[in-house]
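Title: [Solved] WD repeat-containing protein 70 3D structure

Original question kept below for reference.
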Amino acid sequence: MKHTQLQEELPEVKGKRLFQNMDAKKVDEDAMADGEDIGSVMGFSGFGKKARTFDFDAIFEQTRRTAIERSQRVLEERQKEEDGESSSSVKPSGHKQKKTAASSNKEKNESSSDDSDSDSELIAPPKEDDDDDAVGPPLPPGYRGSTAESEDEDDEDEEETQDDDDDNPVKKIPASHEITLEHGTKTVSALALDPSGARLVTGGYDYDVRFWDFAGMDQSLQAFRSLQPCECHQIKSLKYSITGDVILVVSGNAQAKVLDRDGFNIMECIKGDQYIVDMANTKGHTAMLNCGCWHPKIKEEFMTCSNDGTVRTWDVHTEKKHKSVFKPRSNKGKKVIPTCCTYSRDGKLIAAGCQDGTIQIWDRNLSVHTKFHCQQAHAPGSDTSCLCFSYDGVTLASRGGDDTLKIWDIRNFRKPVNEAKGLTNYFSMTDCCFSPDDKLVVTGTSVKKDEGNGKLVFFDRLSFQKVYEIEVTNASVVRCLWHPKLNQIMTGTGNGLARIYYDPVKSHRGAKLCVVKSKRKEKHAEALTQDYVITPHALPMFREARQRSTRKQLEKDRLDPKKSHKPEPPVSGPGRGGRVAAHGGTLSSFIVKNIALDKTDDSNPREAILRHAREASENPYWIAPAYTQTQPEPVFAEESDEDEEADKEPEWKKRKI
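Solution (posted by the thread starter after getting help):
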């Protein structure tokens, strides 16, 4: 009815349009004439031309009609296919439907051709019922929908499942697959992964630091480098800088080291003077180090804490002295030992956990007084093993040696927000960390030997309920690390293993790169060189013939001076072959000849001296002629008769007197 009514109104509409077009042309001619007159007066042309206008409503209406025609054409083609597959009884009805569709299409084409005569005036389409919101003709009965609609439904289902996953943080834990890296036999006490996630570094109680490259490893999972940077000191901490080009090594000695990506030494901190009382006046630490970390914004700055009771910041380029010193103090002002330290996410705060159970936080630029100070955060005397700031920079997680894990809000630092107990901790470096989305807190538990399995425990940050746990191995879980870029979890255990947990769908690169590579096959030549050592003279063609008689062999050996050990004859002549002749003509040969002679004299030394006295008195040559003019003549006393008789008496009488 609507279509026929529109056709009846067409003659009147055409008449109106005709008069309107004629009026418009007349107006245009007048404008052109006026434009020519203005152009002759002003000196340039261009007046009187009509600007081109666009009617967007007409364009949209034309687009809508084109869409209707195309959708109707697609429906007709599908209807043809259905008619071909259906039985012969259904064919007439299908033909009738096709004919009606074609006639309606023809009528619409005629109406559209009539309506498109004028571009200046828009004729609205026929009004439809309010219930018909869909574009195009109604769908045939039994039509289930196009593939696009089904894909939209699938996308909606996927979005719903994704929303469910977003609401449940447990489903984001990448724990479906794991690989094991064998560091050694002793505790893996340090673990670090560079920011890009390409290399992993492990350190342990066996003094070794091992480098693992995920892109270069295959399924054999072997480290490409192992070294001992601190000789016989246990590795306490390993940290990559924010750029990933250098590594901080904190060991049991007083000097931290900085290595490059390949393990070569870049700098070593200076050691302080242990006899100075004020630790602020020393240039470095004087006691064993406990922990260290890099500044999250400044790539050259790092921090260490030590048993000398100080927390020091350093610069990589100035190794001769520290930058600043922070000295933790108790309530009574006494020195306390910091066991762990960390920067806040923005690098403006420095936090340290101490042996007396306190957690002290300073402003990085003000080292005198603490900005936040919490007394009895953990049990006094227990080593606070780890401090970790959340990604939003407001929440602080602390892992204590009193078997607890606590969450703090630094804006209200008097009491913990949440607390979890019963988490056994036997190590002074047991880690805790936040998940990349800040919804979970992760830590490890310790066990004694052959008394259970160490676990990796996950807590919800808000409710602090244990939502998930992983039994890692039959030893303590010391280190744990959740890399935000790879979405993989690394753990270091007490039996020398480093385990990496990942998910093939949720994780990226990292461990996924090496598990897909098969082991390299050993070449045959390499296997031979490892199993056998072949020398040229060991081959059969070079073997000497076997002697039939031992007598002939003995006679041969007797003539050989080396085998018979014939003594060397004395050298005659001037000497040769490094040997000195018996009668040499040089001074050195004479000394060598007489050096071993025994020249000891067993005669009486007094008699040996006095045997020259008579000749010296009769024929003076050295001393007496020199003093002949100045020497007075000796005058001796004459002996009396009594003296002569006394001299004649026996010796035993003289002694008695």
